[in-house]
């Protein structure tokens, strides 16, 4: 069983929801990425999404774009990201790590080489923003062949055909983009999310994580009431941006603990009712 599947099954058995934080590898500098990953785990992360910086992050809002720019200025590359994951995995064999990024760096390395090196490093899942499921059947097969979960995005505009394609090609969990637009946008439509999630879960047969627009414990708790996981990224990047370098890891842990507590309070209240 994959680490991702095992994590969701364990949490489901406990009546709890997954907390999936996102940070960009190499931001604010490469030496801080490993301490930040460990800080996420200390704060209650169940799965870590680690962004691979790219020069043209079309799906990302200004906050994550800035993170990519800072990382690239430090020379952060896909191979360096894999090296960080390998180092993280040496001290943590339990927390799944999902790489999130764009196709270009993977294609530059070569899909087969990437799959092999990612597996060796200890990567559990890969989400490629600009790889729609119908165009990457071979890529997904290469990942699955080495035990890595190909993860896909679904959006409010996704059709039943897209649900079917993701169900066939994807594995691990679904990342539901709860807003039309770019990461970090506001105006989270909770009613729309609540309406869509049960149908998505039924059609794709995988846990559904919701991201985009989650900024605090209250919005995380409300999303967790209907989703299997809460994904939080831009707000974490802001926490890192606004922290002195030596305080960044501690501040990230403190912030994430507030989100974790809110999700666990939801589980307790359900047990009580």
The low-confidence parts are 181-185
Q: Output mean pLDDT.
A: 91
Note the gap between the termini. Answer: 32 Å
Return the string of H and E elements: HEHEHHEHHEHEHEHEHEHH
Helix content: 40-55%
Number of strands: 8
Class computed from helices, strands and strand pairing = alpha/beta
CATH homologous superfamily?
A: Aldolase class I
Sheet with most strands: strand arrangement:
1-2-3-4-5-6-7-8
CATH topology: TIM Barrel
| Major sheet | 8 strands, parallel, barrel
Give a quick set of tags describing it.
single chain; 273 residues; alpha/beta; TIM Barrel; 8-stranded parallel β-barrel; 12 helices; 8 strands; globular
How would you characterize this protein structure?
- This protein is α/β, with parallel strands linked by helices.
- The protein has one domain (3-272): Aldolase class I (TIM Barrel, Alpha-Beta Barrel), CATH 3.20.20.
- It is 53% helix and 14% strand.
- It contains twelve helices and eight strands.
- It has helices spanning 3-14, 30-42, 62-73, 78-91, 103-109, 111-121, 137-145, 160-169, 190-204, 217-224, 234-241, 248-272; strands at 18-24, 48-51, 97-101, 125-128, 149-154, 174-177, 208-211, 229-232.
- An eight-stranded parallel barrel has the order 1-2-3-4-5-6-7-8, surrounded by nine helices.
- α2 links the parallel β1 and β2.
- The chain is globular.
- Mean pLDDT is 91; it is low at 181-185.
Quick rundown:
By secondary structure, the protein is an alpha/beta fold.
Topology of this structure?
Layout: H1 3-14, E1 18-24, H2 30-42, E2 48-51, H3 62-73, H4 78-91, E3 97-101, H5 103-109, H6 111-121, E4 125-128, H7 137-145, E5 149-154, H8 160-169, E6 174-177, H9 190-204, E7 208-211, H10 217-224, E8 229-232, H11 234-241, H12 248-272
Parallel strand pairs: 1-2, 1-8, 2-3, 3-4, 4-5, 5-6, 6-7, 7-8
Helix pairs in contact: 2-4, 2-12, 4-6, 5-6, 10-12, 11-12
């Amino acid at each position: 069983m994959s680490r991702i599947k095992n994590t969701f099954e364990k949490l489901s058995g406990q009546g709890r929801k997954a907390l999936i934080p996102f940070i960009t590898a190499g931001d604010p500098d490469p030496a801080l990425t490993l301490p930040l990953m460990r800080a996420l785990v200390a704060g209650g992360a169940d799965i870590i999404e680690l962004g691979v910086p790219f020069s043209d992050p079309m799906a990302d809002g200004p906050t994550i774009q800035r993170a990519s720019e800072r990382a690239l200025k430090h020379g952060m590359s896909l191979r360096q990201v894999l090296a960080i994951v390998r180092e993280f995995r040496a001290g943590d064999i339990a927390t799944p790590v999902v790489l999130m990024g764009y196709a270009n760096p993977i294609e530059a390395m070569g899909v087969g080489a990437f799959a092999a090196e990612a597996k060796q490093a200890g990567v559990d899942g890969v989400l490629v923003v600009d790889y729609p499921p119908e165009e990457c059947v071979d890529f997904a097969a290469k990942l699955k062949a080495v035990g890595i979960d190909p993860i896909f995005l679904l959006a409010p505009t996704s059709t039943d055909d897209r649900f079917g394609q993701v169900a066939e090609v994807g594995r691990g969990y679904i990342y539901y983009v709860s807003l039309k637009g770019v990461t970090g946008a506001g105006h989270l439509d909770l009613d729309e999310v609540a309406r869509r999630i049960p149908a998505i879960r039924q059609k794709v047969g995988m846990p559904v994580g919701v991201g985009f627009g989650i900024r605090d414990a209250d919005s995380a708790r409300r999303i967790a009431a209907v989703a299997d996981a809460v994904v939080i990224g831009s707000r974490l990047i802001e926490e890192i941006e606004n922290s002195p370098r030596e305080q960044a890891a501690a501040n990230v842990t403190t912030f994430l603990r507030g989100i974790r507590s809110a999700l666990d309070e939801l589980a307790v209240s359900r047990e009580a009712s």
